[in-house]
């Protein structure tokens, strides 16, 4: 299984490398107010992919922190319940 995973990684790398080599032409991005940015197509695609990943991670962080806070609270309640059961002799 490990060899299959490495084979797929190598194939994916070679496909992406071929894409990058074939698409190295400069591309102009035009913004508002006459601003322009010129870079390679591969660089622009990589930056926008990374920006999308970053926005996705930020969107998930709020939910992740809320769930962690809820788990800590539930563990605290469970410890308190177990402690009360031991004191009350309901073990």
Instruction: Return the average pLDDT rounded to an integer.
Output: 90
The gross shape turns out to be: elongated
The strands making up the biggest β-sheet line up spatially as 1-2
Given as residue ranges, the uncertain stretches (5+ residues, pLDDT < 50) are: none
Number of strands: 2
Distance between the termini: 48 Å
**Largest sheet, if any?**
2 strands, antiparallel
Tell me what the structure shows:
76% of the residues lie in helices and 11% in strands. The chain is mainly alpha-helical and 91 residues long. It has one domain (2-88). It has a two-stranded antiparallel sheet. The longest helix has 48 residues, at 41-88. The two termini are 48 Å apart. The mean pLDDT is 90.
Short characterization:
This protein is mainly α and 91 residues long.
Please specify the SSE layout and strand pairing.
Blueprint: H1 2-22, E1 26-30, E2 36-40, H2 41-88
Question: Which terms would index this structure?
Answer:
single chain, 91 residues, mainly alpha, two-stranded antiparallel sheet
